[in-house]
Amino acid sequence: MILSELIDLDILRVIWWVLLGVLLIGFALTDGFDMGVGALLPFVGKSDVERRVVINTIGPVWEGNQVWFILGGGAIFAAWPPLYAVSFSGFYLAMFTVLAALILRPVGFKYRSKRDSAAWRNGWDWALFVGGAVPALLFGVAVGNVLLGVPFHLSDDLMSFYDGNFFTKFVGLLRPFALLSGVVSLSMLLMHGAAWLTLKTEGPVQIRARTIGTYAGIVAAVTYALAGVWLAFGVEGFHMVGEVPANGPSNPLYNEVARGGSWLAAYSLRPWIVIAPIMGFVGIAMAVMGLRAGREVSTLLWSKLAITGIISSVGLTMFPFILPSIVDPNSSLSVWDSSSSQQTLFVMLVMAVIFVPIILAYTAWVYKVLWGKVTEEEITGSGHSY
Amino acid sequence: MHIDVVELSRLQFAMTAMYHFLFVPLTLGLSILVAIMETVYVMTNRPIWRQMTKFWGSLFGINFVLGVATGITMEFQFGMNWSYYSHYVGDIFGAPLAIEGLMAFFLEATFVGLFFFGWDRMSKVAHMVVTWLVALGSNLSALWILIANGWMQNPVGAQFNPDTMRMEMTSFFDVLFNEVAQAKFVHTVSAGYVTASVFVMGVAAWYILKGRHIELARRSITVASAFGLAASLSVVVLGDESGYSASHTQKMKLASLEAMWDTEEAPAKFTLIGIPDREARETHYAVEIPWVMGLIGTRSLTQEIPGINDLVLQAQDKIRSGLIAYDALMTIRTERANTPPEVRAAFEEHSADLGFAFLLKRYVDDPRSATDAQIAMAADDTVPGVGPLFWAFRIMVGLGFSFIAVMIYFAVTANLRGMRFPRWALRLAVIIIPFPWIAAELGWFVAEFGRQPWTVDGVLPTVLSASRLSVADLLITLAGFVTLYTILFIIEMGLMIKYIRKGPIEDVEETEIWMARHEDRLKNNGGLAEPAE
Prior knowledge:
Chain A: Keywords: Cell membrane, Electron transport, Heme, Iron, Membrane, Metal-binding, Transmembrane, Transmembrane helix, Transport. The complex is a heterodimer. Chain A has helices at residues 9-44, 48-58, 62-79, 81-90, 92-111, 118-148, 166-171, 176-200, 203-234, 266-269, 275-293, 297-318, 342-369, 376-381; strands at 152-154, 160-162, 238-241, 256-259, 321-323, 333-334. By secondary structure, chain A is mostly helical. Chain A has one domain. In chain A, helix 1 (9-44) runs antiparallel to helix 6 (118-148) and helix 9 (203-234) packs antiparallel against helix 11. By secondary structure, chain B is mainly alpha-helical. Chain B folds into 2 domains: 3-250 and 384-505, no CATH class; 308-380, no CATH class. In chain B, 73% of the residues lie in helices and 5% in strands. Chain B contains 19 helices and 6 strands. Chain B has helices at residues 3-44, 47-81, 83-117, 124-153, 172-176, 179-209, 214-249, 251-257, 292-298, 308-335, 341-350, 354-358, 372-380, 386-416, 423-431, 435-449, 462-465, 471-502, 508-524, and strands at 158-161, 166-169, 270-277, 282-289, 454-456, 460-461. In chain B, the strands form 3 sheets. A two-stranded antiparallel ribbon of chain B has the order 1-2. Chain B has a two-stranded antiparallel sheet with strand order 3-4. Chain B is elongated and about 90 Å long. The N and C termini of chain B lie far apart (70 Å).
């Protein structure tokens, strides 16, 4: 197809790098509050009815939200096949843990209130807690590991090998900096979940959510700042050696990569990217104030801004790298050497341009239909709730 | 490469995929049946149809959630367990998966929440539209997944790129309109419709046998049997279409599932049953029907269908041709831009057979050093397990025809005998509930096991596709999946049975008031009822 040559490969690569960010942020903004709410569930809801209220705030929307995650996986597969191949096989047991937690979640939502037994319901509440808290933590840990560099190398056939046995591979992910990143992500999503509950609930549940959310926001700001300082002084960055053809073939081994310097060198190279961390800090500060004051809609929006800033800051800091290798820097995956072909990127872009606006439109419509607070009367009165 | 890791990876993929497909067919079919019921409700305004919609909708929900939960695993498992596969064909295979998310899964998952929570929040017509969008999303989802799977069976519209060491898409159009994918899509969704019809009929028959919810159950059987009749015809016709396309795209699979050892003079005979013997390369106690195989496979009386033995010989030739491509590839990889043009030319000429050279990787690290004996062994590996395929295929087809018979009987009885079903037929309907699932799982077995030793037919061997994991990795996740999935299965079955036992919430009073008004209108309007009120 000649059409695909309308847009140059390097442009397509940058567009898909941005779209990858959009999908991850979309996932964090929507399913992020589902995870936050899941992790908050046992603490903000004391009685069964209260917990049902909490679950029903996300009951009708979590399924759609979760598709951001599935679509993120699919889009990485289609647009960045080497990233999909190396990261998911490398983080094998961590991925399995995330999957197991995420599988528990839908089942928990749907099945929890189908039996009256208190033990049954309490059990599912903790399953929902795990389904929210564990992925929220592990996604951050994964991002931390990516910043540190991951121990993989590619063979001449571009087959990926990950160093270590099954034990060190999993436990090896829990490096101090990565754990700190995990805390950033968990506390950020707890704050986001609390902002959602502030909007959708009232009374004691809302008050508890606002209290926990305030603390979570403060923790998120402090750990995010700490992670920045750590990156500046304690983590070695990566850089490309020599001229890298932005239109070159997607073969990471064709480019030379070296370690050294700091990731934060990106901020002197492209000073404008400082907007991302600023958005992160301002967003958190405003969200925390909003939670304390009991503002509803604006708090959620500030929280979204914070998440957008924090996630963008990671991508912008690392650009053009997407998965650096600590054991064989030349195997590192970057925007310029790990994409799909021009044809595939173009076809996928056409699809995204058509369908993403449609998705956003109907998702907005669904949220509009469901607008308003979830109350105890509503839940106990109708047959249409969890 | 550790064969253990490959075998365990295959086991895990087979297990999680077949488990996922326990829920998919019911979602595909029940979403449409529920949408049909709700449409009848909106058109007639009769409360019984709303009760039906809600009841079957609640069973749909219990099933749907596990389909979604187990689908998460599928989306990520390629990267986790099949990382070289993901690298090698991600440029083509990833696209339909991503489009599935964009076009289909978002639609179904976003609206399914409104289906359950939106009854009191929107108009009847709006809710009906939501239900249809859920059904549309589910079925579009199947379309894209089968385009992806169809490409693994018949890899069209793609070409190997030596610079990136992978297959790259040359024509999205060819991938989309791959004949194998199209036949498979209709075959698979039809199988889902049959599954849902048999399920609805079986559960409804049980109510009638128990003397419960009779009016609701009879109407359910009527809708399901009409829908199921069309679907069961379609499933067999499109299954035949799949067989026909396999005769020129996947000759080895076709020969293996028919246990055709030798090429016969056209038109070939069809082996109805028998005991295939791989060692002796013959089928014992075969019951044969002349001409039929040739007719199904080629739709002609003159075209030959190649047998397994000839195909193995052809595979040897392809391996030797693939070795030329492999040798050229090694030069291209070291010389890159400085590769002599004749080497490039040799590569282009033989690159279609490159995958066959990779079959040797099972025996030697460098395929170029393979002996003749190893080449013969690798060629022999292209024959999948004939015995299991032969029987799986026959059981599936037998079940397919029996569904047609059942559907015809129930559809006729529903329409011509005023929905008065005899008790033996109702008992039969209950007994056959599990059968469509057996047929569907066998169908996937035939498709995937029949494609071995390849993940992508003729392009990439399964042995090469797997991630470089350890046996310990695999054992941990296998144990994890088995435990998690078993618990979920027990819970799901428990809830399904509980909700079936509980039955629909029938508002008898509401129905009677409606009937009285309806009768009244009939009298006062000279026999003409106003359907909507």
